[in-house]
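Category: protein sequence paired with discrete backbone structure
Discipline: computational structural biology
Format: plain text, a pair of labelled lines
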Amino acid sequence: MKEMLKGINHISNDNSSKSDSADTDEIISTRMIPHRGANISQLMPALKENIHNSMASAIQDEDSNDCEMTPSKQLINPFPLKGPQCLFKKVHGTNNVQCSDSESKGEQLKSGKHKLYKPVLLNGDKGRDYKDSEEEVKAIKQGMVQIKPTSSAKIESSAYLLLKVTKQLKMIEAETCSLQTTTEAGLKVEVKEQFSELEEEEKIDLPPAFNGEEEKPPQDSEIWSHSQGKPAPFHRSNIDAWRLPGQYIVVLKENTHKSQTERTIHRLRTKAAKHGYMTELLLVFHEVFKGFVIKMSSDVLDMALRLPHIEYIEEDSSLFAQTILWNLNRIAPSEQKMEQYTPPNNGDLVEVYLLDTSVQRNHREIEGKILVTDCENAPEEDGTRFYRQANKCDSHGTHIAGIVSGRDSGVAKGANVRSVKILNCQGRGTISGALAGLEFIRKTLILQPYRPLIVLLPFAGGFSDTLNAACRLLTQMDVTLIAAAGNYKDDACFYSPASEPEVITVGATNNNDQPSITGNMGTNFGRCVDLFAPGDDIISASSDCITCFTSKTGTSQAAAHVAGIAAMLMNADPNITVSELRQRLIHYSTKNAINDVWFPEEQRLITPNRIAQLTTPALTENQLLCRTVWSKRSGLAHSAKAIAHCNENEEMFSCSSFSKNGKRRGEHIEETHGMKKCIAHNAFGSQGVYAISRCCTWPRAECLVNTSSVDDGGTIQMAGCPHKGYLLTGCSSHSSTKFSDTVIPRANKQCTGQKETTSHATCCQAPSLQCEVKEQSSTGFTEKVMVSCDEGWTLTGCSAYSHGAQTHGAYIVDNTCMVIHKGKGAVAIAICCRKRREELKYDPNVNYK
């Protein structure tokens, strides 16, 4: 039934009569106001006779004069009924039935009632029937039952509707009984609801109205407008990533009764089921608002929005605790800490190739940001009883992708991730599978060159020359490779791809800025690690469901953080080289935050003490950046050497050496096939020596090495930088026999030393730079002497000088020159450089001060 009643009014027809007892009959007529054009009054000819018969049969009294209606208060009834009649009934929640003449009133309902109706207990026992007439009459009289239609005849539902309508009447008054009911507005709503139920349950079609009258509803009638076809409003979250499609908060009108709430729920679920849709009721509300929460298809929305009593429907959405994840807070610039993670950009120009397990690409954290490539080279899982559950197979890759670019847990929230599957559901892969992944990336770049591009390698295997070489080859195509250091609490140089110098290798720290260690496992360390990043208890996307999150720990998570930071740096400067990117990551990092007592003693000196961090504002153009590169320790033989290299696009500005027991024979720089090497010489009785190179990036910087000499007359020709435009950036020395630290950098761009040693001056052509020499002498018997460059200056060279005993050597930590010695009389000497101020014109005599 598509049209529902808007209201019911009544008028009396005092002279209507259709029986022999017309003088005693009261004929009541009703004007029906329909909804939207089609008039319910036109149903009257079709239903009038059936309703009359049903009602007359149900309530007719053998004594027609027992209960007459007074002319002044006539029965408000949609249909005229013959004979003196008395309706009395107790319905839901209405406790105002008064019947004084009990026996006669019961007898009035007895006749023919079993044919059409069955009484049902109101007080919970809904299945009990009263077969015995006297018991039934007694129950009705006491208000214990309500009259409902049987399921045997459809038209009786209309009669039942009429009885239900009567509970809304203002007053039913007979000779000895009366019923007080709700307001006319409530009556209108109830009538509309009941005819709507008939429409859905019994499919009664209404003919056009016979009287042609239609009363317009008030302008503020929402129920009327909804029933006319105008849907209620629909709301959803303004942040798409937080939406929860398929779960809806249905808000009903403020004056909606509890029974109407239940009826609305039932009607919505019934409508959905008839159209083949499943629904799940989650919550019902009566206090903070009237309504309920339901899971259903979005296809049911339009139907739901047109139901009566609906104020509006809101799509459910996620909300989150407003605490910045500790890892994002840790890498945020210092001025943002404990406030809000606001990166300088979202890295949307950068492509990140992720070599990992498969990825759940429809997870809300990364949906729309993941491209799954057709490259898969993962081995079979171990064990015959292993089941490939999707959530397990996607677990690692989904978590890592979420850290890189997740909407909430991501570092670079706009970066695009391309998934290359090389690990199986157990997280295991092979060297050959990793090589196949790199091969796929290289072929793709040959066909479609793209930059800026990052390859994230969140795995570790045993040392592999082949894998390292493949990684090195990709860096020559300006591809940035970032790898996990490994979780074996070991030297990262024993693992690949972490051991490859051209790869940016990342270790893991916890929320206390200490190395991440879990039982026997923990982050790797050593000289092959470039920097550390948060990698302990990291919350990110979980493959268990599309809105799930989980916590994981490891250097894979740490590498993903650095990949996100790198993406934002590359987004700001798409033409940045791999070497420049590494230098900026180191430059921006937080220094000396890690307590190195967690590392083995022999690794503490060579493990970098820095944690990755973002910064604002961005680095100024053409800032001189340098980093320290340690070699592996030499052998114990007297002739053993240690060699340190700089990476491609880096220039070696200086070279130094260090021995733990102080026995060494110095260091020098050699150049072979255009590649400079810092070579440290071991000495007899030494425990091994390290070579330490200072590798810097500066546009178009070219360096050469000048060596001291002794002429035929025995005069020493000091090493220096006599050529115009060349600056002294470092001094070194070595000896084939006895060695001592006697070379001193001078402001006149020379490295002065003694006859027993050969000195070397590193001279770099960089006229836009200016440099200064700083030194610090030991005071008393101190083990360590330090000198640092001033803010805005970059340390390029570090030398040790001793008046007495030989030192252990000199090395650079960040922007500080360190000299270790025993005794007194040691001096630490630093060469500091910076971009020359624009107001100073070039003069070779003012490049040093």
Q: What stands out?
A: The mean pLDDT is 76. The first helix runs from residue 44 to 59.
